[in-house]
Amino acid sequence: MLKLLLSRLATAIPSIIGVIVVTFMLTRMLPGDPAAYFAGLAASPQAIAEVRTKLGLDKTLPEQFVAYIGELVHGNLGNSLSTGQPVVSEIATRLPASAELTLFALILAVGIAIPLGVLAAVKQGTWIDHLCRMITTAGVSLPVFFTGLLFAYVFYYLLQWAPAPTGRLDVFLSPPTDITGFYLIDSLLTGNLETFWGALRQLALPGISMAIFSLAPLARMTRGSMLAVLGSDFIRTARASGLAPRTVIFSYAFRNAVLPVITTLGMVFSFLLGANVLVETVFAWPGIGLYAVNALITSDYAPVQGFVLTMAVLYVALNLLIDFLYGLVDPRVRLG
Amino acid sequence: MLPLLRHARYVLSENPVTGLAFGLFAMFLLAAILGPVLAPYSPLQSNAAMTLKPPSAEHWFGTDQLGRDIFSRVLVATRLDLTIAFASVILAFMLGALSGVAAGYFGGWTDRVVGRLADTIMAFPLFVLAMGIVAALGNEVINIVIATAIINFPLYARVARAEANVRREAGFIEAARLSGNGEARVLLGHVLPNIMPIMMVQMSLTMGYAILNAAGLSFIGLGVRPPDAEWGIMVAEGANFIQSGEWWIALFPGAALMLAVFCFNLLGDGLRDIIDPRMRT
Q1: Which of A141, A275, A281 is closest, CB to CB, to B208?
Q2: Does A285 touch chain B (CB under 8 A)?
Q3: For residue B197, is it within any domain?
Q4: Contacts of A17 (CB under 8 A, 6+ apart)
Q5: Considering only Cβ atoms within 10 Å of each terminal Cβ, which end of chain B, N or C, has fewer?
Q6: Nearest to B281 among A224, A277, A315 (CB)
Q7: Domain count of the fold of chain B
């Protein structure tokens, strides 16, 4: 088990190095002269030169890279120009909001996509199969920001079922005591059901928009992989031996079919983390995506770089987790 | 050619949805070419007397906050949206197919460099990387094209690599080499043309994603700037009016965007059925 963990960790190292090199390159490609930029509009040439020395921009690129690594090791991603706060702490306070939204959407997507895919494969060619195909084709075609807006219009403006699409919690409710940073979990832990219900209502529309966008690859893969397994000899044998259809489908077929689905999770996370930015913009969700978009609008680049790096590191970590999960589910990988 | 046409007819009759996709594609192409001529109003002309009007006989899709005709804007935007997507897909194809074919054919360090490059790009959530690239290169339309091409590069490189790798020991490649062709000539004249059908399928499959990605970037304010007509930015402008009930400003450009992506996704599936029947799902 430990060996599996270590070998997986080792495969993530080149990715992390690649991510750091690319983000470094992105910081060096900032439009214009970063020194003139950070010194401010009315800075004298002398002040700009000072800033350049202070930022280390007068050194060679390799030297700058070493300095950049040093800053990263100390957890320093620079300061935001517009708020003056360190980017690291701003991202850290906003991360739970984004994580709660993304995980909620993921659980929703998996919860719908896998049963749908299994059903579509078991009842191939029936209406549920067609429904599955329709949902998967439509799901990848819908721009997630557009679905979000449509939902806001229908469920907030027309039907008034949903609260105003702004933020994590209604202004009249106070946020729960900060334990995990996830409003749903924290409000349950403190027994504050009113806040839980309020947070869930705010979370529903952005979560569903993201889930619809990301469930398509999962459902499609589940269906395809179930079909392949159901057609194999050992399923025929299991059926011929008189096992109940339920046992055949769930403990024989599904356990084998789930492996490619786990692999697809990597792509789903790439979708989700990208969609996260757009959905947070639509629903004014106070997460790191909205933070980066607002920084982009004011040409405040340090938060954007910090955001890209944070997302990339998270994504590498998630892929690592998926790899590890794969090893746990499939004993062949453990032996190999 | 004739058997291919017959096969195409068979696929179309088998799956009428593909025919629908080809029809939609023709419509979008027409709108992209003739859009500015067909538009009943100027896409940029504002009209203070006609702001925020719902759809009517005069303004089919209504007017926006500046009184501009939304139907004209949606129509005219087709050219910009499709151009961005086409350009980025072609750029991704050129970068990805060439380096992928070289990696698969030569192997060795070429393979390792291309593979590492593709892996590094894939280590990012793709939309987030595109955001970072446009932010770093500058807020221009051309940078949306570059960013979209870069995030699509690994897909092309991987497919091209795998296909070239299969063919490198094939008889016709050996024959080409033995008749005295240089490596570059074998690669470009014999391997590359052979994987073109698969690359074409890949291109139409990634078109939809390229349109989505470009529109997403302009939705958050990157690349295209107002007052230019582009679907993503029009949805972003309409977003401000959703909460007060003016649905038509965001709905029509969003629906055009959705239809375009839907069309290219179906087209990609259809093309794959025609070119590579084994991969049918």
Answers
A1: A141
A2: no
A3: yes
A4: none
A5: N
A6: A224
A7: 1
User: What ipTM did this prediction achieve?
Assistant: 0.86
Distances in whole angstroms, Cα of residue A164 to Cα of each of A4, A195, A283, B30, B190: 47, 16, 9, 40, 60
**Selection from A113, A42, A307 nearest residue B129 by Cα:** A307
Name the nearest CA neighbour of A23 among A322, A331, A324, A306: A306
Which CATH number characterizes residue B140's domain?
1.10.3720.10
Beta-bridged to residue A79, according to DSSP, are A86
Amino acid at A199: A
Cα–Cα dist B113/A120, whole Å: 41
Q: Which residue in chain A has the smallest CA separation from B239?
A: A149
Per DSSP, chain B holds a count of helices (H) and strands (E) of 11, 0
| Residue B263 domain-assigned (yes or no) | yes
pLDDT tens sequence across A282-322: 898 999 999 998 888 877 778 888 899 999 999 998 988 88
DSSP per-residue codes, A15-53: HHHHHHHHHHHHHHT-SS-HHHHHH-TT--HHHHHHHHH
Helix (H, G, I), strand (E, B) or coil at B152: helix
Q: Is residue B48 part of a domain?
A: no
How far apart, in Å, do the first and last CA atoms of chain A sit?
12
Q: How far is residue B189 from each of residues A56, A328, B192, measured CA to CA in Å?
A: 49, 47, 6
The domain containing residue B27 runs over which residues?
2-43+61-279
Contact A199, A180 (CB under 8 A): no
Look at the block and give the residue holding tokens 């940029």. Answer: B44
Chain A residues whose CB is inside 8 A of the B216 CB are 143-145, 274, 278
Q: What CA–CA distance (Å, rounded) separates B238 from B224?
A: 16
Residue A86: beta bridge partners? Answer: A79
Distance CA B137, CA B146 (A): 9
pTM exceeding 0.95: no
Sign of CA dihedral A29, B132, B259, B62: negative
**Which amino acid does the sequence have at B246?**
E
**What mean pLDDT do residues A244-273 have?**
86
Tell me, yes or no, whether B52 lies in a domain.
no
Distance from CA of B2 to the nearest CA of A (A): 31
Q: Which residue in B101, B89, B118 sits closest to B201, CA to CA?
A: B89
Mapping DSSP onto H, E and C, the string for A73-102 reads: HCCCCCECCCCCCEHHHHHHHHHHHHHHHH
Cβ distance A296 to B135 less than 8 Å, yes or no, reads yes
Convert the pLDDT of each residue in A133-148 to its tens digit. Answer: 888 888 878 888 888 8
